[in-house]
Amino acid sequence: MRLQNLLTILFVSGSTWVVVMNAAIAEDSQVSSSEIPYINQIEIQRKSSYQLVQATNLGTIPITGVKANPTEKGVEVILETTLGEKLQITNRSTGNNFIADIPNAQLRLPNGDTFTFRSEKLLAGITEIKVTNIDASTVRVMVVGENALPTVELFDDDAGLVFGITSAATAMQPPETPPVEEKPTAQQDEPIELVVTGEQDGYRVQEATTGTRTETPIRDIPQSIQVVPRQVFEDQNVTELGDALRNVSGVITLSNSQVINGDSAIIRGFSAGLNANSYVNGIKRTDFAGRRRSTANVQQVEVLKGPASVLYGQAEPGGIINVVTKKPLFDPQYGIEFTVGSFDFYRPTIDITGPLNTDKTIRYRLNADYLTSNSFVDFSDREQYTVNPVITFDIGKNTTFTIEGEYTREVARGNASLPAVGTILNNPLGRVPRSRFLFYPDLPPQDRRLSSVGYSLQHKFSDRWQIRNSFRASFEQINESYNFLSLRDDNRTVDITGFRRENFDLKTYNLQSDVLGKFQTGSIKHEVLVGLEWNRIDFFDDSRAFSLPSLDLFNPDYDIAPVDFGPPSPYNFNQNSVGIYAQNLISFNDQVKLLLGGRFDWVDSEDNFFGGDSLQLSSSKFSPRIGFVYQPIEPISLYASYSRSFLPGFFASFSRNPDGTPFQPTTGEQFEVGIKTEFLDGKLSATLAAYQITKQNISTPDPARPGFNIQIGEQQSKGIELDIAGQPIPGLNLIASYAYTDAKTTQDNSGFEGNLVSNVPRHSASFWATYQIQQGSLQGLGFGSGLVFVGDRPGDSANSFELPSFVRTDATIFYRRDNWRLGLNFKNLFDVYYAVSSDDASNVRVGSPFAVTGTISVQF
Question: Does the pLDDT of residue 792 top 60, yes or no?
C-alpha cells in the first residue's frame, strides 16, 4: 500500500468536527480480513522522554483536538496537546477491545467545550475507534477489534500523543509483491476523501462535581443531577442564571428577566432563592437575594435534586444550584460578543484567556460584560456591568493555585407586580396592560454593588491522594426602594407600602478544606472525602417603612411630593457555622456501588433589632446520606437513596417558642429511586426519578403573639421527573424535561393544612432542540425552537386564586462559519400573556411579551 500527498484539514463547525484526509492510495490497497492471535500489550516507541504510567502529574491536561490519519500500517489517532509527554497511560484492554485510560487529561476544545471523538469502520478489522471523557479528569481511548485485539504503538511528538493502530486483518496480510513500475493512472493520482466525524458532547454532560465533591460520573451517583452546559446558554442566548433553569425538571423560576426581581426558584416544591441554595464552584453563593447573576463567566450550571446538607450544610430540602465558572486555558483564546435586542437591550462581552509564560504554568482568564436595557414595564430600566478575573499558577508538578475575583454593579428601576384582578383574573373595569408601572419613577433606583475575591489550592500527593483548600470573601452594599401592593374592593385603587434601604452592608467569609483519597480493601474500591467548612456572615440593615399615595390602576398619576423616608430601623446580624463531613463511595465491583456520607454542623447566630438587647441562637444537626447504585449493563444505572437537610432559624429574635426556647432547625428528608440510562451508543442520556420529600419544623404565625411564629408546620412533596439530553444525530442537539409535582401543606395552624404549595404546578415541561446543517453550501446554518409549559398552580398559600397554565414558545436561527457566529433569538414568539409567579392576589409577576435579540460573536 502506497500513500502520497497526505493532507489533513480540520474544520470545527458547530457541535461536530469533521476531519478530512486526502491521500493518493494505490489500487492494491485492499486489506485481508484474516485473523491472528492478538498481542495483549502496548508497544512504546519513544520519540522523546515519554514514560508509560510513570509520567508526573501536571494537573488535568487539556486535549484540544483529535485527528485520525491513515498510515501504511493502518491509522494514527492523534490526541492534540502540547503536553503529551506529561500524560499518564493505563492499559485496561480486554477481549478484542484495546482500552487505554489517561487519568490526568480532559477532552476540551479551545473554547472550553468538551467533546467526544468517534469513528466506525475506519480500518478493516476495526469496528470502532472512540476517544471520550469518562469523568472530569480521565480520557478513555478505545479501539474495538472485529475478531482480535488490535496492535497499538504509542508515542508522542510535537502534535501530541499518538496511537498508531494496526488491525489483526492488516497485520496478517502477506508481504506485498513489489509493484511493476508504471505511470500512475489519473484515477490512481486522484486523492480520495476520508471523512471521520467526532461529535461534541453538546447538551449531554457526563460528569458533575456537585453530587459528591469528587470527579465521579453522574451515572455513579444515587441522586438526580441535571447539568445545563455552556452550549445551551449560547443557543438560547441566556444572559441571566434564572433563564437557564427552565431546562431542568422540577425547577420553577419565580423571577422575570426583564425587571428587577432577582434570581429565585422553587425546586421540587421548596423555595430555593438563588442566594440560600446557590453555590459557585461548590462554595455557597454569598450575595443577598435580589441580584441577578450574569452568565458571562459561567461554564455550566449543575442542579442537585433533593437534600444536600451532607456536603453543603444549611439548605432547603428541594435541592441546590451550583454555578461552575470558566477556567483559564493553556492555549490563547480571545472572544468578543455583542447582543442587541428589543427594549433597547445592549450587551457587549469579552472573554480572553491563555498562558502568561512560555511553559504555561501561569494562566489567566478575564470575562467582562456590560448590559443596559429598558423593559416592557413603563419607567423600568437597568444598567449592569461585571468583571471576573482569574489567574492560575502551577506550583511544581502537583500543586495548582487559583485566584478568582468578581465585581458587579447593578443600577435598576422597575416593578413587574400587578394585581391578579385585571391581569389573570377578570376585572369588570377591563384588562390592565402588562406595561403598567405601579410605583413612583422619581424615587431613587436600586443600586447594588458586589465584590468578592477567593482562592483555591489543590495539591496531589499521588494519583490516589490529594488535598483541596478554598476561601472566598464577599462584600455587598445595597441602596434601594421596594414596595408591596394592595388592591381595594373598587378594583382600581392600589395602596402602596414602601420600604427604603440605604446602608445595607453584607460581609461573608467561607473556608473549605477537603482530603480526597482512593484505596482498596481486597477487591473493594473506596473513594473517600473528608472535609471541614467554616462560614461567617455579618450584615447591617436600616430598612425603613414609608407611606406613598395610592395609584389608580387604569389612570395612574406619578406626581408626588418629596417622600419622607422616616427614621431608620437598624438591625445587626452575624452568624458563625462550622461543619465536618465524610463520604465514602464504595465499589464492590463494576456493577454495584454504595455511597455513604454524614455531616455534623454547629451554627451560632446573634442579632439586634432596633438597638435593643442582643439575642443568641445556637443549633446543631447531623445530616446523613446513603445511596445504592446497581448497573446491570453499562448504559443503565438503577439507584435508590435517602438523604436529609437542615436549615437553622435566621433571626434569633423571632425564632423562639412562647417559653423563650429557641426553634429547632427546619429539617427535610427524602427517599428517591430512579434510573439513569444512555441511548444510541451514548449519544443520548436520560434520568427518570421518583421521590418523596418531607419538610418539618416549619414556622407558622403564632395566633397568641402577633408578629411572631410557632414551629409546628410541615410540607410534603412527591413527584416524578424525566430529563433527556444529548445529540442523537450529528448536528442535532436537544434537551427536554417533564415533572409531576404534588406539593402540599400537611400540618399548619393557619387554616392552610391540605392546601397546595403556592406557585408549584402539578405538571411542567420544557423542550429545546437545535439543528445545524453539516455539509453543503448551507453548512453552518442552524435553527432551533423550544417550548416551556407550566401548568395551573395556586397563587398563594390560602389557595384563594389560581395562576393559569401557559405555553411559551422560543426560537432561534444562527450561522457559524470558521470562528464567527451570528444568531437571532425570539422569546415568547406568539406573544402569550402569562403570569410567572405571585406573592398574593395583589402582587402577581407577569411574563415578558415577544422580544428578539441579535448576537454576533467572534473567537480568535
Answer: yes
What span, in angstroms and rounded, lies between the C-alpha atoms of 842 and 419?
A: 4
Look up residue 294 and give its DSSP letter.
Answer: B
Tens digit of pLDDT for each residue in 794-807? Answer: 999 899 999 999 99
Q: How far apart are CA 749 and CA 761, in angstroms?
A: 24
Closest to 471 (Cα-Cα) out of 434, 512, 529 = 512
For 30-66, the pLDDT digits (tens) are 333 333 232 222 333 333 333 333 333 346 788 888 8
Mean pLDDT of 732-748: 95
The grid coordinates of residue 720 equal 416524578
What is the rounded CA–CA span in Å between residue 479 and residue 542?
10
d(CA 603, CA 648): 8
Q: Round to whole Å and give the CA distance between 716 and 645.
A: 14
DSSP state of 656: B
Q: Is 231 helix (H, G, I), strand (E, B) or coil?
A: helix
User: How crowded is residue 247: how many other Cβ atoms within 10 Å of its Cβ?
Assistant: 28
Percentages helix, strand, coil for the chain (3-state, rounded to 5) are 5, 60, 40
**787 CB contacts (<8 Å, ≥6 apart)?**
765, 766, 767, 768, 807, 808, 809, 810
Residue pair 162/78 in contact (Cβ under 8 Å)? The answer is yes
- 517, with CB counted inside 10 A (0-12, 13-18, 19+), is middle
Spatial CB neighbours of 40, under 8 Å, sequence gap ≥ 6: 93, 149
Nearest to 322 by CA among 380, 281, 363, 377: 281
Altogether, the residues listed in the chain come to a count of 860
Range with lowest mean pLDDT among 81-85, 391-395, 419-423, 784-788: 81-85
Q: Which residue type occupies 509?
A: Y
- Locate 24 and state its grid cell: 493518493
Enter the C-alpha cell of residue 314: 444549611
Residue 651 DSSP label: -
Query: Which amino acid type is present at position 408?
Result: T
Instruction: For residue 245, give the DSSP letter.
Output: G
Q: Identify which of 795, 794, 805 has the alpha carbon closest to the alpha carbon of residue 833.
A: 805
216-264 per-position pLDDT tens digit: 889 999 999 999 999 999 999 998 888 899 999 999 988 765 444 456 7
Q: Which three cell numbers stand for residue 435?
A: 406595561
Contact between 245 and 228 under an 8 Å Cβ cutoff? The reply is yes
The CA distance from 757 to 593, in Å, is: 36
- Contact by Cβ (8 Å): 673, 705: no
CB 658 within 8 A of CB 674: no
Q: Residues 70-112: pLDDT tens digits?
A: 887 788 889 988 887 778 888 778 777 888 888 888 888 776 6
Torsion on CA atoms 85, 87, 93, 97, rounded to nearest 10: -90
CA atoms within 13 A on the CB side of 1: 17
Q: How far apart are CA 353 and CA 321, in angstroms?
A: 26
